[in-house]
Amino acid sequence: CNTTLSKVKDPETGEEKWEPKGNSSEAPIIVAARKVGFSEDVAKEYPRELEIPFSSSRKMMLTVASMAGRSELCPGGMSFPAGTKHLVVCKGAPNFIAEYCTEQL
Q: Between 4 and 86, where is the model more confident?
């Protein structure tokens, strides 16, 4: 993702809120990741080993991140089977992605 998230103070209410900057289609992903425990340094903590960019014909993009030495996705998150080395993440049009799925969580 090329989107960042920062806390800002709402000028009208004075309340702190999260404000995404960057790609608006990635903002919900970033917000959800932060809410479940991923840190700001997620890109450094989970280095990408491969990226297949978005394609309008495929209607999706894919990344492969290193999970070496990890037993769970994030603190308190999904556990990995022993020996897990990589995590593949695909984002895009759900109807196109679902066609390629053999299992669902």
A: 86
Cβ-contact 65, 43 below 8 angstroms: no
The tally of CA atoms less than 13 A away on the side-chain side of residue 84 is: 16
Enumerate residues 6+ apart whose C-beta is below 8 A from 31.
Answer: 5, 18, 20
The pLDDT tens digits of the residues spanning 71-83 come to 988 888 889 899 9
Q: Is the dihedral of CA 86, 36, 95, 102 positive or negative?
A: positive
Place of tokens 């993009």: 61
Token pair in block for residue 28: 């919900």
**Following CA atoms 1, 88, 96, 31 in sequence, which dihedral angle do they give, to the nearest 10 degrees?**
-40
Mean pLDDT, range 59-71, rounded to an integer: 90
Contact between 20 and 3 (Cβ < 8 Å)? yes
